[in-house]
Amino acid sequence: MKNIFETLKHYYGYDAFRPGQQELIEAILKGEDVLGVMPTGGGKSLCYQIPAIAMDGLTLVISPLISLMKDQVDALQTMGVRAAYINSQLSYTDQQMIMEEASRGELDLLYVSPERLGNHQFMSYASGWNLDLIAVDEAHCVSQWGHDFRPSYQRIPELMAVLPSRPVFAAFTATATKIVQEDMIDQLRLNDPFKHIASFDRPNLYFSVVKPKKKAAELLKIIDKKESSIIYCNTRKNVDKVYSTLMKKGYPVTYYHAGISSDERTRHQEEFLYDRKPIMVATNAFGMGIDKSNVRNVIHYNMPLDMESYYQEAGRAGRDGAPSEAILFYSAQDIITNTMLIEQGNSPYARQNLNAMITYCKTGDCLRKSILKYFDQKVQWQACDYCSNCDGESVITDITVESQKILSCIYRMKQTYGTGLITDVLRGKNTKRIQQLGFDELSTHGIMSEYTDGDIKDMIAIMLSEGYLQLSGDSYPIIKFTQQTNDLLQAKVTLSIRKQLKQDSAPKQKTVE
Ligand code: ADP
Prior knowledge:
Layout: H1 4-12, H2 21-29, E1 34-37, H3 44-54, E2 58-62, H4 66-78, E3 83-86, H5 92-103, E4 109-112, H6 120-126, E5 131-136, H7 156-162, E6 168-173, H8 178-187, E7 194-197, E8 205-210, H9 215-222, E9 228-232, H10 236-248, E10 253-256, H11 262-273, E11 279-282, E12 295-300, H12 307-314, E13 324-329, H13 332-344, H14 350-362, H15 367-374, E14 394-398, H16 400-412, H17 419-427, H18 432-437, H19 453-465, E15 469-472, E16 478-481, H20 485-489, E17 496-500
Parallel strand pairs: 1-6, 1-7, 2-4, 2-5, 3-4, 5-6, 8-13, 9-11, 9-12, 10-11, 12-13
Antiparallel strand pairs: 14-17, 15-16
Helix pairs in contact: 2-3, 13-14, 13-19, 16-17, 17-19
The structure holds adenosine-5'-diphosphate.
Adenosine-5'-diphosphate binds near residues 17, 21, 38, 44 and 45.
Cofactor: Mg(2+); Zn(2+)
Keywords: ATP-binding, DNA damage, DNA recombination, DNA repair, DNA-binding, Helicase, Hydrolase, Isomerase, Metal-binding, Nucleotide-binding, Zinc
Enzyme class: isomerase
């Protein structure tokens, strides 16, 4: 058996390991289970490929992305490693042939998707293999606490049950909070694993949160024809809208979402990758497995549903280490839309995840610190001096009294209406509908006439995110009280809002130490 440094040089041509790789590889070779949490592009694949090459038996790699599987196997075969994959795109005969090869001990690595573990024939073959290692890629998918739960990952322990002896288990992910990490260890039944958790800090990324009055206008201020940028939108409709705005203004832009044909997707992706069209407008369907190092801006046109997705997407900026920006646009409408979305779904954790996202948008604290704290990483400093909050662009205002006015209006409207009508009543509008319903007679009619619609909607959005209000109703969302509402009405708690002083997301200076 070659030592691991020789393997690194011989097969990959690299001279040194990246942080964590050597420790993870050595632990696996000692027979220990491992958990590797490293950023995308950090070099996770090598951590199981080198042991796979070094060990006698087979390494089974469980990976969710069929396209990546093929790329990895092609690369390994080119290096002279005996690797293969099985997925539904292969013919039955080919699948059969590869399983036979594995049975004859002719493979070092075999890639399969987690769904494959539901196939009886596969499981019966697998029970006869000489398996040294099972490597689980994107292992956070096993956890319901994560942002990308896939039930098929829970089949992995079933595989363990059919094996005559337990191989080493190695789990890898790019994004995980402590809760997800613990859950991954439990769900995958890792045995007191050696852990390597890389730092999540990205010092070359300038983080900013902006609440633009007009998102399209703000976007045009930021975006540069010569720089590569990704603009993430929450819906295909918004992708189309933003794309055509930029198109009309002559920007070199392309787009991507699940609604276009796979040929088009490939073409658009390539236009972006090779900088023929350096600006990409996309839904979150775009990005997994994309390795473009010179992306200067990742702009979220809408607020994502959770911090893990946000950080993963934002992290696609500045892979080359050069100064880059992660800019998040949000609006009260985003908070309302996202709240509705998660209330329609049935994930018990989505609410918590969304609240963390909203807190990130509203915080007056250092944005980098907020992110790292969310990922349970130790932070030694108070301010990073390289995010929009550290630039001192925002102030915090107490809105306890305003929120009490809103609550008393909702109460008087019998908790049966949505944001629009509540706002109109508070501002003292005299529409036909308001008169018909007699809301112009309420004592709360016009008690917030000095505020704009946007101000009031912001406050309602914050009350929703903090759990002082909730949305219900099937055909259109109705705003109702919660068990916590009384605390705010009785001023047992206070509520505050962060306001930006200037609607400009550009950093003051773009230097990285
Ligand atoms: P991840 O799976 O963590 O996203 P990959 O395993 O795909 O990352 O690695 C990203 C890139 O870094 C690949 O091109 C890989 O060959 C390269 N790489 C990995 N380890 C090293 C190393 N020790 N030295 C140089 N390049 C490396």
